[in-house]
Description:
Oligomer: single chain
Distance between the termini: 13 Å
Structural class: alpha+beta
Amino acid sequence: MKRKITIFIAIAAPLAAVLIAAGCGSSASGSGGSSYSVAPYGSASAASASVHSATGATKVGVASSRLGRIVVDNKGRTLYLFEKDKNRRSACYGTCATYWPPLLTRGKPVARAGAKQSLLGTTRRANGSKQVTYGGHPLYRFSLDTKPGQTKGEGLNDFGGGWDVVSPAGKKIESGG
């Protein structure tokens, strides 16, 4: 277990440095391109805000993967639930939200092919932003999933809880390994 965490930290540390450096860059005020809020902790990075620009609504769909059919964001990236979340509220802030960016939205989330609109919802994060939920679970991406179809976060136990891919039925998918 310690080896798994050490490897994760060794891989994630350079990524965190890149994200911090990117966050320190200047931006024009009022650019209108920002899809997240500034907050003292738990802020989403620009990469985490998968938001449809015209309506502000995040789209959630379903794709096939090595784990079967899974819930994905509008770019086909795998979405996860955090077992530590309770009562539709996120328990992932600060460093956790850097490695596991929350899926945010400005409007009502929209179901694409395979996803059920009735299972989509939102929850308010501590910084006031709206996080997409599916089947009552706040949704996250994993920062080391860089391409559609990757499920590198499946089965990890980080930040005090387990992380699992979400099925189209709104349940966790466990890889069993």
